[in-house]
Specification:
heterodimer; A: alpha/beta; 6-stranded mixed sheet; 4-stranded antiparallel sheet; 10 strands; 32% helix; B: mainly alpha
Chain lengths: 237, 224
């Protein structure tokens, strides 16, 4: 099994602030890894760095074989990021949004149809302007856009947020399908019970660094916010 | 690149068609500017006719600022910037698409304003080939410069006020050249210079802005 993500002492700056201050993370292809941590621990920055959106200024960083310190742009089309914002054009219908993002990624109408159906977006919802949807519906549409792009690395930031129970089940199913299809998934979530059931293992971020944790999920969940910040980065793989 | 440009351009035009901001807000604003000029200069209809070319292009310029702000605001919605950078679309294609859509909107606006100038200012249009060639080159230059400076300003928290400060001086040569070319075509020029020279200058400006945008839009997107 190959390595999809390989970070060694990776540092990312937001302005002058080291949002990631020496992250070590190795994720094998086909793995589902949960990133835990308190607010401000660096989870979102880690996901954005893995997407090639935030530059890694120190350390080693390779994602899907692309060296992030040399060329992060060539990685991006292989990555799907579900961030806090839905990434939808409010004035366009859901169908128009899905068509645009799918075509941008080289997909076609079939990809859109499949993705919409998978996320339970029916005819009426498909023709509604994205700006008129509820938060949960927008989240579903954003996930459908992600599915239509067929990325090799899924980066999900709070993927269950704003979804009802059925929607959360759909997300879990999607993640498992993506992995069955050969993709790799890194997700950050505060809904630990559900996310831990989904993930193969967890890593914990604190103060912009990975801290040691057990290979399975036992004992991590409740301890995450109070994990002491280490003086040296610890490799968790 | 051209496939990406078509995709982005069609998307931008579809967004404008759905939102109707251009037809319900920008176009009325542009006509209002013409009307206010007419009120201000009404006692002297001859002056209105002599200044029609300049007033027309000033109205276009003010409206272009609004159109550019709108074009960039669409990409500033939550998560859109990240999605665009992850989309795999060529930044040069994104630039050409956005500039192309902007040019189409501005050209449509110029048709409305042209009708307004004829009706409100009593201008008798003449020299149609020059008028059209000028409008085409000036519109392309405005759209390209607007897309560049719009992207530049969009990373700022004060983009609404920053954009006019950046854009208006940069496109002043377009305003001057387009006004002189139209004055020559309409026969209202004080000092007659061949319209072809001004149209050529506009063509050069358009090529420069487009080339700069194609080269610089990638780094500009990274700074958003």
């Amino acid at each position: 099994m190959g390595v999809a993500v390989n970070l060694r002492s990776a540092v990312c700056l937001l302005g002058r602030f080291p949002a990631l201050a020496g992250v070590d993370l190795v994720v094998a292809s086909g793995e589902i890894v949960l990133v835990q941590g308190a607010n401000g621990a660096g989870k979102t920055t880690l996901l954005r760095a893995l997407a090639g959106l935030v530059p890694v200024v120190e350390g080693e960083a390779e994602v899907l074989g692309h060296d992030l310190r040399r060329d992060r742009r060539s990685l991006r089309c292989h990555v799907g990021l579900l961030g806090h914002g839905p990434g939808l054009y409010d004035d366009l219908s859901v169908a128009d949004n899905l068509r645009f993002w799918a075509r941008a990624a080289g997909g076609d109408g079939d990809d859109v149809t499949r993705a919409a159906a998978r996320m339970g977006l029916d005819g009426r919802l498909l023709e509604a302007a994205a700006g008129r949807l509820s938060t949960g519906q927008r989240r579903r549409a954003a996930l459908a856009a992600l599915v239509a792009r067929k990325p090799r690395l899924w980066l999900l930031d709070e993927p269950h947020a704003g979804l009802d129970a059925a929607g959360r089940d759909v997300v879990d199913g999607l993640v498992r399908e993506a992995v069955d299809g050969g993709a790799t998934v890194v997700l950050a979530s505060h809904e630990l019970e559900r996310a831990r059931a989904l993930a193969d293992r967890s890593v914990v971020l604190a103060g912009g660094r990975t801290v040691a944790g057990p290979a399975d999920h036992a004992g991590i969940a409740d301890a995450a916010p109070s994990v002491p910040e280490p003086t040296e980065p610890v490799h968790v793989a | 690149m051209w496939r990406d440009a078509l995709l982005v351009g069609a998307k931008d035009l579809r967004v404008e068609a759905r939102s109707r901001v251009a037809t319900n807000q920008v176009a009325p604003f542009a006509v209002l500017v013409l009307v206010l000029f007419a009120f201000a200069l009404d006692p002297d209809r001859g002056m209105l006719q002599r200044a029609a070319a300049g007033l027309f292009w000033v109205a276009v310029l003010f409206s272009a600022v609004l159109t550019v702000q709108r074009s960039q605001a669409v990409e500033g919605a939550d998560g859109i910037g990240d999605a665009l950078r992850l989309s795999g679309l060529d930044p040069a294609g994104i630039f050409l698409g956005k500039a192309g859509a902007l040019a189409v909107e501005l050209f449509a606006l110029e048709l409305v304003l042209g009708a307004g100038v004829i009706v409100l200012y009593g201008v008798d249009p003449a020299g149609y080939p020059t008028l059209v060639a000028t409008a085409a080159a000036a519109t392309l230059a405005l759209a390209a410069a607007g897309t560049i400076y719009g992207a530049l300003a969009s990373g700022s928290r004060v983009q609404e006020t920053l954009l006019p400060l950046l854009l208006l001086p940069a496109v002043a040569p377009v305003l001057i050249a387009a006004t002189r070319a139209w004055e020559a075509a309409l026969g209202t020029a004080v000092a007659v210079t061949a319209a072809a020279d001004w149209v050529s200058l506009l063509g050069v400006l358009a090529v420069v802005y487009v080339a700069f945008g194609v080269a610089a839009f990638g780094p500009l997107m990274e700074e958003r």
